[in-house]
Amino acid sequence: MNLSTAETTVMQFAATYFPRGVQQATAAILQEYILGPNHTTGLQLIQDLGQIITDLRFNYPMLRESLLSASVPGAARQYVYQFSYLSPNSRFPQWAGVPHTAELPFVFGSPFDLTANWTDTDKKVSSDMMDMWTNFAKFGSHSSTCLSLSDPTPLNSAFDPNPLAVDVLIWLPYTPAVQAYLRFETKPSLSSHLNRNKMEFLESLYEQYGQ
């Protein structure tokens, strides 16, 4: 991977997502994601392109949909999480990051399959994921404003904009004001405004050059 190839790839994506200003959008994306002193190696360029694709195809559309849905009066509550745990058993290299759908083996309890070489940390993450998903299924329509990861009873809590590090984690709904999301790692934490700078950047591109 070299810079010329990266530029060509970015332009192809810009033509799809920003047809009213392909050249301008390409230049802006390159400046935002790639053109910097620490973005010169082939591996770094691959990582940068991966982040661009992830933001365009997954992060921005998902967050935009969640924001619009949460803005509708009387609509069902929205909950957002980011799965950021990469198991040592992953077939993806560490530098590639956590791929789409990486959480599914943990949702379905695969680390408890004794025939595979899963770690204790994998099992802990899987247990937390199963708690989260089952609690969401049981209490997602509850009149409470929050969901608890560790406690099967939904609880109320004021939002702390800093990530939480507590044994009982309260998963707050995604709202226009707070934009809370659950960051799922070896120890889950709560934060807000996922990838805020990049999302605001893409929002400005869509306003200027989107369809």
From TrEMBL:
Cited SUPFAM superfamilies: alpha/beta-Hydrolases
Lineage top rank: taxon: Eukaryota
Positions of the Carboxylesterase type B domain: 22-201
PANTHER family named among the record's database cross-references: NEUROLIGIN (PTHR43903)
Annotated family: Belongs to the type-B carboxylesterase/lipase family.
Record-given protein name: Carboxylesterase type B domain-containing protein
